[in-house]
Amino acid sequence: MEETAARLRSAGLRPTAPRVAVLAVLEAERAHLTADEVVRAARQRLGALSVQGAYDVLTALTTAGLLRRIEPAGSAARYEARVADNHHHIVCRSCGAMQDVDCAVGEAPCLVPSSAAGFVLDEAEVTWWGLCPGCQARQQSKPRIDDEMEESA
């Protein structure tokens, strides 16, 4: 926990119990958690944490650069502690599972647009969508409607 508190201090934040708990959860899980998942896990460490308090902490940690907020289309925002690089994500269309993918090509921003329109680029965010192995297996094990109709005829 002292390492987590030191990281907060180095980012200019006081290491309050809620901040330490939220950051520790995201560092330990090494996952892409929704705010609700963060609240549940942080409450196990703290005993009590309001939803608003958790959102305030998530905002402060994201603003300080200690967390990254990911917003996949059509799903809740997620948070991760992997912030030191420019990586991308793969998201399952069925269950929402998310995995990190290292930079697609070379150094950040990894991809070069046809026109930068005068912007100085420092990051590219890419999200690939598909079906995770678990959802693929479930889909293959389900009988098709055509097969069920033939068997009942």
Order of helices and strands: HHEHHEEEEEHH
Net shape: flat
Structure summary, number of beta strands: 6
Outline the low-pLDDT stretches: none
- How far apart the termini lie comes to 64 Å
Please give the largest β-sheet: 3 strands, antiparallel
Q: Please, what is the average pLDDT?
A: 86
Oligomer: single chain
Side-by-side strand order of the widest sheet: 1-3-2
- The share of residues in extended strands comes to 5-15%
Structural class: alpha+beta
Query: What Rg do the Cα atoms give?
Result: 20 Å
With helices defined by DSSP (H or I, 4 residues minimum), what is the helix count? 6
Helix fraction, binned, reads 40-55%
Commentary on this structure:
- This protein is an alpha+beta fold and 153 residues long.
- Helix content is 42%, strand content 14%.
- The protein has helices spanning 2-10, 17-29, 35-46, 51-63, 133-141, 145-152, and strands spanning 33-34, 68-70, 78-80, 88-92, 98-101, 127-130.
- The strands form 2 sheets. It has a 3-stranded antiparallel beta sheet with strand order 1-3-2. A 3-stranded mixed beta sheet has the order 5-4-6, with no helix packed on it.
- A hairpin with a 7-residue loop joins strand 2 and strand 3 (78-80).
- Helix 2 packs across helix 3 (35-46), helix 2 packs across helix 4 (51-63) and helix 3 (35-46) crosses helix 4.
- The longest helix is centred in the N-terminal third of the chain and has 13 residues, at 17-29.
- The radius of gyration is 20 Å and the shape is flat.
- The N and C termini lie far apart (64 Å).
- The relative contact order is 0.11.
- The mean pLDDT is 86.
